Amino acid sequence: MTYTTHGVSMKPMLSPKGDLVTLREKGEQRCRLYDVALYKRDSGRYVLHRIVEVTPEGYVFLGDNCYEKEYGVREDMVLAVLESYVHNGKTITVDDPAYQRYVRRKVRLYPLRCVRLRAEILLKKAGRGVRKLIRRS
Q1: 50 contacts: CB under 8 Å, gap ≥ 6
Q2: What would the pLDDT profile of 52-75 be if each residue is shown by its tens digit?
């Protein structure tokens, strides 16, 4: 299956509404650590994120542009696994050495990404507070 991505949770690897992803049906085999997989939440929403932990019950997922891990993703919720994607007109397979380097770097830098994303959220909230104070004066 090939489809166009939506959302920003996998940036910079995948651009919202612009990149194509090709997925293969998951089948009986378990996913591996760092696979990007499509799963369906109990709410019915489909999510394409990276597996950052494999557990006996299922998986822990994390978007490349997210800082909160998603726990409790059961084996039966996972539908497909990324095989390749097209970004900026270039097709990249999950076996590509550049992709493998990207994955290792993303995973290694997760703690720093958490700090950066949380700081950005706090700065945005602070900016809104400052704007409100300015409007009141």
Answers
A1: 10, 34, 35, 36, 37, 61, 62, 63, 64, 103, 106
A2: 999 999 999 999 888 889 999 999
